[in-house]
Amino acid sequence: MSYHDILPAEVSELFAAADLLIFDIRDAASYARAHIEHAQMASDAALKQLFISRQHQRPVLVYCYHGHNSRDISQFIAGFGFKRVYNLVGGWQAWESFIETQAAPSQSSVPSPALTAWMHEQGFPSDALHGSIENGMSPLMIAALKGEQEHLEELLSLGARFQSTQ
User: Fold this and answer.
1) 143 has pLDDT over 50
2) Of 36, 60, 64, 115, catalytic
3) C-alpha 114 chain-centroid distance
4) For 94-126, what is each residue's pLDDT tens digit?
5) Dihedrals φ, ψ of 71, to 5°?
6) How far apart are alpha carbons 81 and 57 in whole angstroms?
7) 58 pLDDT tier (thresholds 50, 70, 90)
8) pLDDT band at 43 (very low <50, low <70, confident <90, very high)
9) Is 46 within 8 Å of 40 (Cβ atoms)?
10) Percent of the chain's residues with pLDDT above 90
11) Burial class of residue 85 in the structure, from the number of CB atoms within 10 Å of its CB (0-12 exposed, 13-18 middle, 19+ buried)
12) HEC secondary structure over the chain
């Protein structure tokens, strides 16, 4: 019997399973600071309860700090006949990074006041990331032409396109 490695981006598919069991094998202080929602500490008592249940089709996700120690626990659980055991590749560190990248677009979907002022100075309405001015240039084109790196990076992060949609 063996376990399956799973990437943070694939974990959401497991969350759909109502009976998903998530074990955090990090220390108690790390667990107390933050953990995957619905995760429980992988205590001896919790593992014993899992083995006694004999619910071999129940999905089990295991993670640690970096995804190394959780491989051993995943293999251990799979050795008891559990067929749907998953090791989170990269562990908590990878999960935390994944969650941060998922949250990033919603946090940066509004232009900064500096970019809004700059766009106004260039002749664009402040909400026209994809628009153009009379010469047909988009905000992204002008920022690139003028070498304004900060505005260029922000426009790219907001999804601005080189060609206008006017």
Assistant:
1) yes
2) 64
3) 28
4) 999 888 877 654 445 788 899 999 989 988 886
5) -65, -45
6) 9
7) very high
8) very high
9) yes
10) 55
11) buried
12) CCCEEECHHHHHHHHCCCCCEEEECCCHHHHHHCCCCCEEECCHHHHHHHHHHCCCCCCEEEECCCCCHHHHHHHHHHHCCCCCEEEECCHHHHHHHHHHHHHHHHHCCCCCHHHHHHHHHHCCCCCCCCCCCCCCCCHHHHHHHCCCHHHHHHHHHCCCCCCCCC
For residue 61, list its beta bridge partners. 22, 86
pTM over 0.70: no
Please give the domain boundaries of the chain with CATH numbers for all domains: 4-106 (3.40.250.10), 113-157 (no CATH)
The reply to whether 163 belongs to the active site is no
